[in-house]
Amino acid sequence: MPLAEQARPLAELAAALADVTQGGGGVTVVSGGVGCGRTELLHALRSVAVRAGYAVLRAAGSRPERDTQGGVLGQLLRYADLPEGHRDALARCLFSPGADGSVRWPPDQATGAALRELTAVLLRIAERVPVLLCVDDLDLADALSLHWISRLVPHLRAARVLLVVAECTTMRPTHPRSHAELRRHPRYRQVVLEGIAPGDMATVLADSLGGAAARTPSADCYRVTGGNPLLLRALVTDQKHAEATSAGTPAPGPVVARAYGDAVLALLHRAGPTALALAQVLAVLDEADTHPGLTARLLQEQPAAVTDWCRDLAAAGLLDGTRLRHPVGRAAVLRSLDAPARRALHRRAAELLHAAGADAPRITPHLLAAAPVDEPWAPAVLDEAARRHLAADRLLEARDCFGAALAVCHDEGERTALGARLAATARLLDPALGTRHIADLAAVLDGDLLPGRHALALARHLLWHGRFDEAATVVRRAAEQAERPGADPAAGAEVHATRHLLATIHPPVLVPADGTGGDPRVRAAAALSEVLARGPSASAVAAAEAALRGMRLGRSTSEWIVCAVTALLYAERIESADRWCRHWLAEARTRKVPLWEAELSSLLAGIRRRQGDPAAARDLAEAALTRVPVESWGVTIGQPLSHLVEAATDSGDHLAAEEHLAVPVPDAVYDTRFGLHLLHARGRHLLETGRADEALEDFTACADLMRRWGCDQPALAPWRTGAARAHLAWGDPTTARALAQEQLGMAGPLPTRTRGLTLRVLADTEYGTERIGLLTEAVAVLRTAGDPLQTAGALADLARDHLHAGRTGRARTGLATAARLAGRCGAGPLAAALAAEAETLARRGPADRTAVAGPLSAAERRVAFLAADGHTNKEIAWRLRITVSTVEQHLTRIFRKLGVRARRDLAPALAPDAARPVPTPGDAAPAGRRPTE
Question: What is the DSSP string of 313-358?
Answer without folding.
Answer: HHHTTSEETTEESSHHHHHHHHHTS-HHHHHHHHHHHHHHHHHTT-
